[in-house]
Amino acid sequence: MATHHALGIDIGGSGIKGAPVDLDKGRFAEDRLRIATPEEATPDAVCEVVGQIAEHFSVGTDVPLGITLPAVVAHGVVRSAANIDRAWIDLDADRLFSERLGRPVHLVNDADAAGVAELHYGAAKGHRGLVVLTTLGTGIGTALIMDGVLVPNTELGHLEIDGHDAESRAAESVRDREGLDWEQWAERLQVYYSHLESLLRPDLIVVGGGVSKQADRFLPLLDLRTEIVPAKLRNKAGIIGAAHLATRGN
Ligand code: BGC
Prior knowledge:
Nucleotidyltransferase, domain 5, globular, binds beta-D-glucopyranose
């Protein structure tokens, strides 16, 4: 496979998904493979599934492999575990994965990967200035990109608002769990995004996560100074961004 291809694997709470990515086009080069995340998502169990996905595709071990985790990942080491097994904390995941898979890997935060994918191939394509991508899912993930350069691990889904961790009030999983209708959820998003824009004054906010395909139900209810748009790559963004970062670094 030519060097403008890379493999991306996105580790999520319910599924682990991977595909080879054509980095010139920002698209999957083959159909993606999804395997359910093990019930006990320990590093060993997750590594096993990642290995199955990597082996499924007939790409050489010289093809770069990027992997996302829903956690802070600094220099290959996992530093948080808001929505994943605590056994990940302080683990040198880069080393674990590269030893088990017998190839170099590049680990990144899931929202950072999605942000980079949207910047290069999606809703924020070519945008200069400050772009903030937020993913609304089990938690809230954020990616901060200034003039095309990612500032990794921003974790602004954990901003404290009125004494609460923002994601515990406004994540998509909360809408589901508390049975909020679109208006009720939008009120919570309004508080979150107003806070975010007052702190950062971004030029563009991109809203990702599975729920972004229903963006017309809640984005029009928000009143913000900042342009706010739905992500374009949706659930492909993590895989594409991981593959991109494994190859091109930013
Ligand atoms: C985690 C982030 C992650 C986000 C989305 C948050 O709970 O702290 O690292 O990006 O969820 O998965």
